[in-house]
User: Fold this.
Amino acid sequence: YHIRDAIRQLTDEQQQVILLRFFQQLPHEEVARQLGRTPNAVRAVQFRAISRLRKLLAEYRHAV
Assistant:
């Protein structure tokens, strides 16, 4: 089980935010511009995505 597998379980918008923020290292403002959202909306999506990733990865650790 890899982080990529966990990312695939996120919503499309959450995946986009994670990829743009952490893999392309873009600031919130640039991600917001690309997605047609506000920076605060991007922060909220990012927060939910990271929370979901933590839960998915914790579930995997407990299952192993």
